[in-house]
Design a protein that fits this description.
415 residues, Methylamine Dehydrogenase, Chain H, four-stranded antiparallel β-sheet
C-alpha cells in the first residue's frame, strides 16, 4: 500500500506531494525517494525520484516554493547518516548539502524551517558525554538560503538535565514553539536566536503537537482522548476543553484563517470552523485512511489517502472545492421550519425565500457525523420537502441548510 503522506501546496494550482510505502516491502525505500509536482491544481502530475542512496528513508521535507525544496534522509546502511538534499529547479536535479552538523556525529537535526526565501533555522539536539546520557538543544541559523549556517550560542538556549529530544514545532511570525519528549515547550520570539523552556499540561513523555494561529493563541493536542488545551498568552498558561464530534489523531490549522482546523487519521478526515470545539466529518472520506491534509485557503485543499502511484489525482488524492467557512449572515433571507418537531421521523421542511437558490441539507448527530444529506433547488417563494427520517435513533440532531451565501442551523428532536 502506498500513501500520499505529505502534501505541500504553494497556491491553488502549484503543489508538491511525497509518497510512502506502508508495511514491509522491497520498494519501501524507492517510494521514500519519490515526489510529484502539479501545476494545475492536482489534475496532472510529474513524478520522479531524488538521487539519494537506495537505503535512505525520508525524515522531513521543507518546501520553500515551487522550485526550491529540501529533503533530509536517514541512510540505514551507512551508520544512519542523514544526507540533506536540495533542489532549486523543481526537482530536475538534486544536490547533496553539507551543513556543519553533518560533520559532527553528536549533532542531529530534527527540522529545518524558513521564515522567508533567505532566513531559516535548523532545530535539533547534540549528545553529550555526561553520565547519565543527556542531550542539549541545538540550533543553526542561515541568512543566505542555506549556503552557510551559524550555530546559535549555547548561552541563548536552556540547559536540560534529562535525556530530552524535540518532537514537533509550530511557527507564527517571529515566534517558534517546539514540543519536547518530556512534555515541555521551547519558545523563541526572535526567529530562534534566544530560547526559553516552559511546562505544559502534558507532564508525561509522549507526542503532542503545538498549533499556533498567532503569537498569542494556540492549542496542544496529543491525538489521544478528547481533550484539547488552548492558550491566549503565547503558551505561558493553558486551559482545557472537550471537543465534540469526530476529531481525529492529527490536527492542522487552515493558513490565514482564525477559526478553521482540520484533522486526519486512519478512519477519515474532519473539520472544525469554531476553533476545534465541534467537528464534522467529510462524508466522502469516512472510513478512508487519510495520511495528509493541506489547504492553501478555505476554498481549496487536498487530502492524501492510501494510494499514490501512478497518478495521485486518480489514486489516493482527494481535492476539496467549496467553502469551509460559515457565512456570517443569512444574505438570502431564508426562513426555514421543521414540522413537527419533536418528530417520530416523518418531517416536513418548509422554506420561504423570494429567490431561486440551490441548497444543501445535512443532518448531523451528537458525534458530529453526517447521517443524512440532500441537495435541491428552492425554485419559488415558498416550497416544502417531505423526509422520512424514521431510521434515525432517538436523540437531538443538528439540521444544517446551506448555500454559498447562507448557513442556517436548526435543531431536530427524534422521539
Amino acid at each position: 500500500m502506498v500513501a500520499t503522506n505529505d502534501i505541500k501546496p504553494i497556491d491553488q494550482n502549484h503543489l508538491w506531494a511525497f509518497a510512502n510505502k506502508l508495511g514491509n516491502s522491497n520498494t519501501f525505500f524507492q517510494y521514500q525517494r519519490t515526489f510529484a509536482r502539479s501545476s494545475d491544481g492536482g489534475n496532472s502530475w510529474d513524478i520522479a525520484e531524488v538521487n539519494a542512496p537506495d537505503s535512505c528513508y525520508r525524515e522531513f521535507v521543507l518546501v520553500l516554493n515551487f522550485d526550491t525544496t529540501w529533503i533530509q534522509f536517514t541512510d540505514v546502511n551507512n551508520n544512519f547518516d542523514r544526507p540533506l538534499f536540495k533542489t532549486i529547479n523543481g526537482g530536475l536535479t538534486w544536490q547533496q548539502q553539507y551543513p556543519p552538523w553533518n560533520s559532527d556525529s553528536t549533532q542531529s537535526i530534527k527540522f529545518i524551517h524558513f521564515f522567508d526565501n533567505l532566513h531559516g533555522i535548523a532545530m535539533g539536539i547534540q549528545a553529550t558525554n555526561i553520565s547519565p546520557p543527556q542531550n542539549v538543544f541545538m540550533f543553526y541559523q542561515t541568512y543566505d538560503c542555506g549556503n552557510t549556517w551559524t550555530q546559535v550560542p549555547a548561552s541563548n538556549i536552556p540547559i536540560t538535565p534529562i535525556f530530552e529530544y524535540l518532537d514537533a514545532y509550530s511557527q507564527f511570525d517571529s515566534c517558534i514553539w517546539i514540543t519536547t519528549s518530556e512534555g515541555r515547550i521551547l519558545k523563541s520570539q526572535d526567529y530562534g536566536m534566544h530560547w526559553n523552556l516552559y511546562t505544559t499540561p502534558f507532564s508525561f513523555t509522549g507526542n503532542f503537537i503545538p498549533i499556533f494561529k498567532s503569537t498569542s493563541h494556540g492549542i496542544l493536542y496529543n491525538g489521544f482522548g478528547n481533550i484539547i488545551y488552548s492558550t491566549s498568552n503565547g503558551g505561558l498558561n493553558w486551559n482545557s476543553f472537550i471537543p465534540t464530534g469526530p476529531i481525529h489523531s492529527h490536527i492542522f490549522h487552515l493558513p490565514g484563517d482564525g477559526t478553521i482546523y482540520l484533522s486526519i487519521s486512519s478512519t477519515g478526515c474532519s473539520y472544525s470552523n469554531d476553533e476545534c470545539h465541534t467537528w464534522t466529518d467529510f462524508p466522502e472520506l469516512v472510513g478512508k485512511i487519510t495520511s495528509s491534509v493541506a489547504f492553501c485557503n478555505k476554498y481549496t485543499g487536498w487530502v492524501g489517502s492510501n494510494t499514490f502511484l501512478p497518478n495521485p489525482s486518480t489514486n489516493g488524492l482527494f481535492k476539496f472545492t467549496g467553502a469551509l467557512e460559515i457565512p456570517s449572515e443569512n444574505k438570502e433571507n431564508i426562513d426555514a421550519k421543521i414540522i413537527p418537531n419533536p418528530s417520530s421521523g416523518y418531517v416536513k421542511l418548509s422554506l420561504t425565500n423570494p429567490k431561486n437558490i440551490k441548497l444543501k441539507l445535512h443532518i448531523i448527530n451528537s458525534l458530529g457525523q453526517i447521517v443524512f444529506s440532500d441537495q435541491f433547488y428552492h425554485d419559488n417563494a415558498q416550497s416544502e420537502k417531505d423526509y422520512n427520517l424514521s431510521f434515525l435513533n432517538p436523540g437531538i440532531y443538528n439540521v444544517v441548510i446551506s448555500s454559498d451565501e447562507v448557513r442556517i442551523r436548526k435543531s431536530l428532536v427524534i422521539l
